[in-house]
Protein 1
Amino acid sequence: MAYVVNHLPEYPNERVLVGPKTFADAGIYKISEDTALVQTLDFFTPIVNNPYDYGQIAAANALSDVYAMGGKPLTAMNILCYPLKLLDRDILVEILKGGADKINESGAALVGGHTLQDNEIKYGLSITGIIHPDKIVTNAGAMAGDVLVLTKPLGTGLIISAIKANKVLAEHISLATKSMVCLNKAASDAMLEVGVSACTDITGFGLIGHAYEMAEASKITLSFFAERIPIFEDCERYVKMGLIPGVSKLSKKYLKDAVRIDPKVRKELVDVLFDAQTSGGLLISLPKGRVEMLCTKLRGKGVVTVEVIGEVHERGDVSIIVTP
Ligand code: CO
Ligand code: CO
């Protein structure tokens, strides 16, 4: 993507507070001194077999970037590609119902959408939210001395890959679905109440990929304690079965010089840390003195997974360090 963005013309606009140059998947446009729009969109092919769950996951995933920046979603629009002639319309109803229910849970309003005839189903949403221009949480504010908190387990990419290969354990489908349909709203509310330095949601680049972006944007080095990182229990079995998603392999290859991994960290676990996530949790960086307060608030708001997984250091020779 960087190649493409760098070859596009630049049309500077002083109202654009976060734009394409930062490679963020959400943009922010200032309307007035106290209001800015936060906009994002995401869509993908089915990742689970249940159409209602797929719709819910697509919506939770599309909303996630708004929550990661500390915004409040206001409106949503459906994006749908669908083989109308081949597939039962009831499936379409279930997908859109899943999306609509999640949007309703977020407090936003579904205001429209667009459908296109296509050979393969693709569904997602564009989301518009609001945010105070001075209260935007970005991935650029992490500071040495901060600690890192993660709010969902890793491994959805491996589990989705195992679903597609028909090799998945039933309990993994239900655990991963439960996690992916969960909005990052409660986590975002807690982080705004406590006040944090930086945040990113964990999606297609995996934990290490999004952490790398945070390290580069904040000009610091992040270290992770591998054994403390929450993962779906036994999802490493899919690494051993050769079911690592292609995008996860690419992240690992692309980032190999930016990451220093202690040889004592299990090889399979390393692949989970690079695993591409769908509707993953928030990675929050905040001063050590406030971490107890954040964890208490997260749990109080019903966030199931709350783990302190790493620390922020002055910029060193690599972006990321992983120790056992
Ligand atoms: Co996104
Ligand atoms: Co994101």
Protein 2
Amino acid sequence: MRPDMLNPLFAETRTLEGVGPKLEKPLERLGLTRVKDVAYHLPERFVSRRAIANLDEASPGEQVVVALTPVEHRSGPSPRAPYRVLAQDAVGNICALTYFGRASYSAKKQLPVGEKRWIAGKLDQFGQMLQIVHPDHIADESSAAMGQLVEPVYALSEGLTQPKIAGLAGQALARLPDLAEWIEPAVFAREGWPAWRAALQRAHQGDDAAARDRLAYDELLANQLALMLVRADNRKRKGQALQGDGSRRAKLQLPFPLTGAQARSIREIEGDMAQDAPMLRLLQGDVGAGKTVVALEAMLVAVEAGAQAALLAPTEILARQHYETIRRLAAPTGAQVALLTGRDKGRGRESILMGLLDGSIDIVVGTHAIFQDTVTYRNLALVVIDEQHRFGVSQRLMLTQKGKRAPHVLAMTATPIPRTLVLANHGEMDVSKLDEMPPGRKPIVTRVMALERLDEIVEGVARHLDTGQQAFWVCPMVQESEAADLAAAEARYAALKERFGDGVVLVHGQQKPEVKDAAMERFVRGEAKLMVATTVIEVGVDVPNATLVVIEQAEHFGLAQLHQLRGRVGRGSEQAVCLLLRGDKLSETAKRRLALMRETQDGFRIAEEDLELRGGGELLGTRQSGEEGFSVASLEQVQRLQQMAHDDARLLMDRDGGLSSERGEAARVLLYLFDRDFGVKTLRGG
Ligand code: ADP
Ligand code: MG
């Protein structure tokens, strides 16, 4: 149960004064549904203004506060034209206060002709005239608000204004209870951070690094604690110790010897599975490092021990491909392999469900459909999750804990995860690394070319296809509208089809699954030579004969994504080529990304640099850690504070794993505060 003192914070936003049905919508769009969300909606930045005596003291572009006296109201020639109030400063300069749309109504009321007002806003030049568009504040002389020269700027959505959201934040802050400190006293003292309530208040008032860090640290600490609690709970649960006798694995006829890294990872996994505490292991290996075989061996261990194994893939396409591979490789071992996705219906589905129930199916490959309530296993003992980063980690952990006996879990990811984020996302998971590529791989030749040279590039593709090898052509999803992106991909497809005839297929995320699969099939079988695709091919597709990948508008992709896309080729023994097509205007970061792609193929290095570039906040502004599951901590803060939060959480867990001490109680409050209460629920009295 949530502690009572948090109730005011978990109240809905409509309990704030001034929030009715009209304001609720825009707040919701920002993810602000509860009072606490509003309190944690921290300013993106602050403006500082200069108070000036007259307009001669400032230049266009500056944020100012100045006394002006309206002299004339001018509505435009049409209702859509701006509404202007001409106003005069102390020495006779004229400045236009300009309003668009409905904002002009308030201007009429707030700016009576002949009465002096204090105006705060950004000074602009409009033709010969100075202007302030939609002043931030208008007040008469007595107002204290004008004294405030530093002001927060919040992320807005349509229907909200800065003063409105600032007002709501103020109300939310006024409701903050005093909470007992959950941070380790030594850390708290050393960092010189403010207490929780003060930190939130200060973070809204000005650029306050200590306050911001403290709040970010809270979030990281909550995350670490939750992961540790789930892990501890997992350890307490009974799994089943699986001893494979090697009989099935001995029958495998792999066309290659395992790499040292593969053999080591398999040993580590086998060791875990032999314990009755459930395994929780992350297999990290770059694209093409050979994770599938490792997964297969692990699944065969389960089968040898008389149990079942499931492989969960993030997409239909990938599930299908895994199924084909696993079935083919496992055939000599006699293990029965089935595919189950959301699309299987009727008879076929019934018979698979039957097989899982009676144990005649040993290995099932599928999408999340394999975990639906209607699916019952005779004895599911191992779950392999491919492309782990696509799933919410904690949710997955909980999901696999549904049964009475917890299955062993092997999570696999091809995204080399930077160290700091491994900690953030996977907490206490054990890690096996495939840090050695199968032998004989030639480095992929990577070139950056201007899109202007399209004709030349298409002829290059033609020569490539003439050798009998295949190619990918990746179109980006970059624009605001998915429809426009799709249109661009379709246009490219049409153009390439014109040139190459029927040997071109199109694959994108909006296609009906049957259509998509049919196109994939044709490419995998080699009937189609060229696949035009949006980034749906990012994950997993394995066609060794595809040795060229063209990535259009490469500057719009992140590093990690480019790396994944490039990894679609270079899987066979032929020399592979990656062409990065770029537009003519590149930001500095985009240039660095493309240069790095040319320079290295080391996924771990790319991941670190990607984090650094994104941490710099260039792509979308300041907050880039959202996809890592954080809402307060920025990527930069994640990197800087993660380890500390981890150690702090560890210490607390070691001393008081049941969170029953005074500080433990405080930590429970913290978990609720950051919606990590699934951690608390693993505890008695939680
Ligand atoms: P990923 O780690 O990206 O899932 P895959 O398991 O799809 O990689 O393997 C990529 C390719 O490398 C496959 O064609 C696979 O057959 C091949 N492969 C895997 N292990 C080895 C090995 N030890 N030696 C040679 N080729 C291998
Ligand atoms: Mg794979």
